[in-house]
Amino acid sequence: MRDPYEVLGIRAGASEAEIKRAYKDLVRKYHPDQYAGNPLSSLAEEKLKEINEAYDSLMKNKGGYTRGSDGDTGRDYNPYFAQVRQYILSGNIHEAERILNTIGTRSAEWYFLKGHLELKKGNYHQGYENIKTAVQMDPGNMEYQQTLRNLMNQNTRAGQVYRTNNPSSAADDICKICTCLYAADCCCECMGSDLIACC
Fold first, then answer.
1. What gap in Å lies between CA 183 and CA 177, rounded to an integer?
2. Contacts of the segment 30-33: beta carbons below 8 A, 24+ positions apart
3. Cα-based distances in Å from 197 to 162, 181, 187, 193, 194
């Protein structure tokens, strides 16, 4: 691997803040979304991989990912999480999930992003559970808390709409379903077919 300082274009011994700043600038410059449909996209992807490896190497030498002291959001900073967020925003769920699955440490940020992926895929329960785990792991993170609150409010509103539109009891609902199925079966039999074979 090339000298990580050289890859990031910074002087040897640069501070953590300088490393993060250089990394973020380069990620923006070489992000795959910038090269969509461009013949240079594979080169940009390789460059981004090299940038990520250089960043990882430097941050590990400085004692691992740290909570942001330079105005960062306060999350455990991992460069891949920034990529995952970009992919989620651009709708590239497959790539976001691929990157998340390569991250070994399941931090609060990991669960938060995994929750967003599950929600995008339509897996509401799994998404909710992952975001709830993120809040439990990092209860001081306002982004996680707000997202969980929004999900809980949506769930409550959906339940209220259901109860308002369906005031009958569960037993009445089952009776209505059976009646509809029986009527549909009768109609099918009149047409020479059979919806429910046992009736």
1. 10
2. 31/83, 31/86, 32/95, 33/86, 33/90
3. 32, 12, 13, 10, 6
**Dist CA 54 CA 43 (whole Å):** 17
Sign of CA dihedral 82, 88, 93, 97: positive
Residue owning tokens 């707000």: 146
**Burial (0-12, 13-18, 19+ Cβ within 10 Å), 94:** exposed
Q: Quote the pLDDT of residue 164.
A: 43
Predicted confidence at residue 183, as pLDDT, reads 59
User: For residue 139, what pLDDT is reported?
Assistant: 87
Give pTM, 2 decimals. 0.47
pLDDT score for 69: 32
Q: Which helix (H) or strand (E) holds 185?
A: helix 170-190
- DSSP state string for 85-130: HHHHHHT-HHHHHHHHHH-----HHHHHHHHHHHHHTT-HHHHHHH
Q: Which portions of the chain are predicted below pLDDT 70?
A: 1, 62-78, 156-199
- The pLDDT value recorded for residue 34 is 77
Distances (CA, A) of 57 to 1, 8, 63: 10, 11, 10
User: What is the distance between the alpha carbons of residues 134 and 111, in angstroms, rounded to a whole number?
Assistant: 5
